[in-house]
Design a protein that fits this description.
Blueprint (H helix, E strand, L loop, with lengths): L4 H21 L3 E3 L4 E3 L3 E4 L11 E4 L1 H20 L3
Antiparallel strand pairs: 1-2, 3-4
Length: about 80
């Protein structure tokens, strides 16, 4: 059985080394929430249900998104606590 180029690359360099190489080749992007350059900035879906679908999305880094998710979790918990 012959191995493919991808299999040979993985065998020679290992997954951890590939992760480190890719990590430093990812460009720094400006996060509009924290106003810092980060590698993990992307468009993410919030825990909202607005009629205008564009309002359900936010562009931010992982750290900011965790704060946003916690914010919405708190708001939804308060909402459901007052429903009954």
């Amino acid at each position: 059985m012959t191995e493919t180029n991808d299999q040979m690359f993985m065998r020679m360099y290992g997954a951890r080394r590939i992760h480190l190489v890719l990590q430093f080749h990812t460009p720094l992007v400006w996060c509009p929430m924290c106003e810092k350059k980060k590698r993990d900035v992307m468009r993410r879906r919030q825990n909202t249900s607005y009629f205008n679908e564009a309002l359900n999305w936010v562009v931010c880094c992982n750290e900011c998104f965790d704060e946003i998710e916690q914010h919405w979790a708190d708001l939804w918990a308060e909402y459901y606590a007052n429903c009954y």
